[in-house]
Amino acid sequence: MLQEREVSIIAGHLDHSIRKIILTIFVLLLVSLVSPNILFASGKLPCPCASYNRELYETKPRMQGEDVWELQNRLKQLGLFKGTCDGIYGKKTAAAVRSFQKARKQPVTGKVVEATWEALGEGCEPVSTPPAEPPEYVSILIDLEKLTLTIMEGNHPFKQFPVAIGKPSTPSPIGEWKITSKEYDKGGAFGARWMGLNVPWGDYGIHGTNRPWSIGSTASAGCIRMFNEDVVQVFEWATVGTRVKIKAPLTWLAGSCNRTLKDGVCGPDVVYAQLLLKETGFNPYYCDGWYGALTELAVQTYQLHTGLTVTGKVDEETRHHLEEKAGIFETQNQH
Out of 47, 49, 156, 223, which one is annotated catalytic? Predict the structure, then answer.
């Protein structure tokens, strides 16, 4: 009886172990089928524009940030702020805010709340125009050099809008993306609408703004800003899944790659390598910042075609070779 019981216990343990092995294999297979964009999403940094929704007021230590800089810049445009736009909420900034609030018959508190931002933006929104009929096949082209967002119908421009883009210190993500989420009335610094993009290294989007005076400049924390009226129109035309291409001269990304690129990594430097491959005729499919199988294959093909060691990785030698073929060094020297 004892032996039978021991055999039964051992069999039970074996059965439990086999179930665990089968479950582990199933989970690994499931993970291998999931898009890396989805796996990475939980580790994304929050949209930097979220920090622009603060109330601003005098404190010790003093509040500082890009939102303070934008406030100072607008007050300077209105002739109320005479100091340096240094992003620090000091006495001169608070005094200029109180002067603005008094002129607009708002409570003179020296505190910048949502109503203050709205009043600061009065007169900056474009003149209302009737919306155009929606195009049938929509994609979006954002030109960082021209500061424009163009609705494309197939290969033809349909309608163009002015935008604000990221500052040099917080650049907008060059590459080929798609809209993955849409939200109404995001509010504050996000304005009337939000359209999130599948950029793998951060939470970026196309959105409205309560700082309409910034449109047509490099002012954001990386997102694409639009006038609220314009973003509402684009929101109605673009669906989840709509393709969004953000372009700029290749030289804007030169110098961004300081590591060996290989399967599984992501970042702006991967976009740079993908764009170089496309420029030299070795298309890696979408320039989406992910170094996947198609990018690796394009690199291997390029290396084989040009006599480089075939590794499937973009090391310093391969990158320099690609840059020479794409004319990056020559273009940089011209500038």
Answer: 223
Give the predicted TM-score (pTM) of the model. 0.80
Region label for 65, one of left (φ > 0), alpha (ψ between -120 and 50) or beta (otherwise):
left
Residues 144 and 102 in one domain: no
**Active site annotation includes 266:** no
What is the extent of the structural domain holding 72?
56-112
Tell whether 123 is covered by a domain. Answer: no
- For the question of residue 207 being annotated catalytic, the response is yes
Are 191 and 212 in contact by the 8 Å Cβ rule? The answer is: no
User: How far, in Å, CA of 208 to CA of 182, rounded?
Assistant: 12
Residues 42, 24 within the same domain:
no
Burial tier of 272 (Cβ tally within 10 Å: 0-12, 13-18, 19+) = buried
DSSP letter assigned to residue 202 = S
In tens, the pLDDT along 305-317 reads 999 999 999 999 9
- Res 225: pLDDT: 97
